[in-house]
Amino acid sequence: MDISIKILLIDEEQAEYLLLAQLLNQVGCGGYRLSWCNTLDGGLDKALSGHFDIILLDYYWRGTTGSDLLRCARAKGCRAPIVVMSAEMVAELDRDIIRAGASDYLIKGQVDAQLLERTVRYAIERKAAELKLSRLAHYDILTNVPNRILFRDRLEHALQLAERGQMSLTLMYLDLDGFKQVNDGYGHDAGDALIRACAQRLCECMRKSDSVARIGGDEFTLLLEGTEQTGDIAHIAEKVLEAVIRPYRIGSHQVLVGCSLGIAVYPVAGRDAESLLKHADLAMYQAKQREGSAYVFYTEAMNIEVHRQLLLESNLQRALGNNEFCLYYQPRVELSSGRVVGLEALLRWMHPQRGPTAPEAFISVVEDTGMIVALGDWIIRQGCQDLNRLLERGRDPGFVAINLSLRQFFEGNLVARVASIIKQVECDGSRIEFELSETAVMENMEMVSLHLRALSNLGANFSLDDFGTGYSSFMYLQRLPIRTLKIDQRFIGNITRDDDDRELVKAMISLAHSLNKQVVAVGVETPEQLALLREFNCDQVQGFYLSHPLDLESICHLLNQDTPFSAATIRHI
Ligand code: C2E
Ligand code: CA
């Protein structure tokens, strides 16, 4: 049998060594190799640093007690199980040595071959189980790199060193882009293989002193120690990105993923684990907003921005509760007659200090937080009620156009909610037009298309906002129940100055007509623009030249005039 178990005996007595060797021989048939350490001069250190499966330690050794020796062994990083041997064992001693990290004890004089064998085996097995458990608790099973718990430990430890000025510290937070698609498209095994390969690449591009951890599905953290210069950190970040986004071969597939990396450098980005992690995450989120794979360093400005957003968010919540929102209306005018054919409802926040505030300042927060769902319902209801009020007062504005955000389609049952609002408010569904942005429609074709069909059963019409800024597929445009295309104001603003934009607008109008759609030009500010649009056969116009968005009272007044936009205004050249 091969020598399988290496035992170290720490004892002064040669007799004891010989006795143990003899006992081992009886049971082990050569399966044990016993080494003996009996000197102090470097012997103990050397012995402890060697690889042994188990250490048998005499309780009294050169004037030191077993408990001190145990602590010394553990402090030196010795991980082998240690069995203490003493002439007698009293309860106090027993507790003391177990607390100091002993696996078991043997009482000299009572040791026979079987007991020795059993003690040695058990101690080794117990230690192995202990190590395995600790590994399971601290390492990610899939990738074998540290998990969140161990990473946190290491980060705390690194922070202590950094605090004492002994080391610089950088935390990188990494998230894969497109992992979900791989998982959903090729199955979980492929997803697992991708994560494993990614972890391996990360480990390969890190130095020994750095550590890689997996802290979530497709999220990793990297801890860099001793890298101070921003240039060096950026260089490492580039290396990491390059490594991660290289194509992966998973089974028979070639798989590509992107990667976003947020970087938090101690102490600029925080002095404790919590803030470093939070800020690296924040920077990662910024990196995600960029095109393709990118890395971003955390900056104080980001924090200020986040605080600003949080404050805005809570102010908006309050505004919703306090009824601080209101709708303004901007007329849509038919070019041929000067008639108001519809009103676009435009949201305003009647801010207690700042007065009417345009949506640009807050709409993205309203959308990102999901508040748009509740607010969106309010907008639809208010729009319908205002329309009824105008009709009751004998003013017919045609329809009300209501802007819909994409998020409103995703959350809750939009169609059922619209139906119930229309019913409650007793509004004519055919007097509602929903405006949807071109990109939102094109990027979510299937889902949007289903909703549009259901909403059009309620009588509603649709227009495509920001037309020309996205990439509309004309085939789809033809298939959707969209009545009107709204040419984005960026094009209209330039038609009198820029030949290309003029040609483009002209082409868009004739294209829309060939698809049987009406065209509205948005952002008409000058009579010259109006004249050109008339020449191009544009159907409707909307813009400051005709009217700014107005509150309901002013709109009511405007509609009171027979032809608010007289032929003279419209024909003015
Ligand atoms: P939009 O749908 O493109 O609305 C037109 C915007 O252009 C309005 O800005 C309007 O005041 C402005 N505008 C109209 N004529 C002119 C002009 O001649 N010159 C210039 N420079 N601008 C003109 P507003 O009201 O600030 O709205 C901005 C955006 O906010 C809207 O763009 C829309 O995307 C969003 N929004 C407004 N109200 C709502 C709403 O109720 N719900 C949702 N989801 N979004 C809304
Ligand atoms: Ca609009």
How would you describe what is shown here?
The structure is a single chain. By secondary structure, the protein is of the alpha/beta class. Helix content is 48%, strand content 22%. α7 runs antiparallel to α8 (188-205). It is elongated. It starts with a strand and ends with a helix. The site of ligand C2E has 22 residues, from β16.
Q: Which sequence of strands runs across the widest sheet?
A: 15-16-18-19-20-21-22-23
The main sheet comes to: 8 strands, mixed, barrel
Helix percent band: 40-55%
Low-confidence stretches: none
Mean pLDDT: 89
Layout of helices and strands:
Elements: E1 5-10, H1 14-28, E2 32-37, H2 43-49, E3 54-58, E4 60-61, E5 64-65, H3 66-75, E6 82-86, H4 91-99, E7 104-107, H5 113-138, H6 148-163, E8 169-177, H7 179-186, H8 188-205, E9 211-216, E10 219-225, H9 230-245, E11 248-250, E12 253-255, E13 258-265, H10 273-289, E14 294-297, H11 300-321, E15 325-334, E16 340-351, E17 355-357, H12 363-368, H13 371-392, E18 399-403, H14 406-410, H15 414-425, E19 432-437, H16 438-443, H17 445-456, E20 461-467, H18 474-479, E21 484-487, H19 489-492, H20 499-514, E22 518-522, H21 527-535, E23 540-542, H22 552-560, H23 567-571
Parallel strand pairs: 1-2, 1-3, 3-6, 6-7, 13-14, 16-18, 18-19, 19-20, 20-21, 21-22, 22-23
Antiparallel strand pairs: 4-5, 8-10, 8-13, 9-10, 11-12, 15-16, 15-23, 16-17
Calcium ion (CA) is lined by residues 344, 403, 435, 465.
